[in-house]
Amino acid sequence: MVRNLRKPLLCLDLEGTLISKAVSQIPRPGLDVFLESVSELCDLMIYTSVSRGRVDRIRDLLIEERVVPSWFEDLPVVHPEGTVKVKALCGRTDAMLLDDQAAVFATGEEDWWIPIEEFLSPYPSDDCELTMALAVIKGAVAARQP
User: Fold this and answer.
1) Average model confidence (pLDDT) for the chain?
2) What CATH number did the domain enclosing 51 receive?
3) What is the mean pLDDT of residues 78-98?
4) Which residue, 77, 80, 88, 101, could crosslink 46 as a Cys pair with Cβ 3.0–4.6 Å?
5) Residue 2 resides in a domain
6) 72 lies in a domain?
7) In the predicted model, is pLDDT for residue 3 greater than 80?
8) Residue 3 belongs to some domain of the structure
């Protein structure tokens, strides 16, 4: 029997999940450690409503400030058509989406959602949402293995 050795796909929301907002661009505490850890478990993609140009500027800033790995710049980016993040746009059926907003999911597609609390002002330095999300992702990946 041949096993599928491909890692599942984790799509990452940007605003409110990895950073504050596209304007303020404050990285969530532990972002670099989270990205390094989750990249060992999953293939990664950014799934955001933020415009392409702004995503590029945000990635450049985060890399320059050394709060994300340099490979963050190379992650593919998908943009929803409208406000709903449809799973099919990721191109893979094994996708999961880490996102702070329940309203972005298409009806009947909530099962691919990995929820995280929105990163809001006053942007606490002891925020541990990414650590908790990593534990959930590890569990989801383990549950998918044969």
Assistant:
1) 94
2) 3.40.50.1000
3) 94
4) 77
5) no
6) yes
7) no
8) no
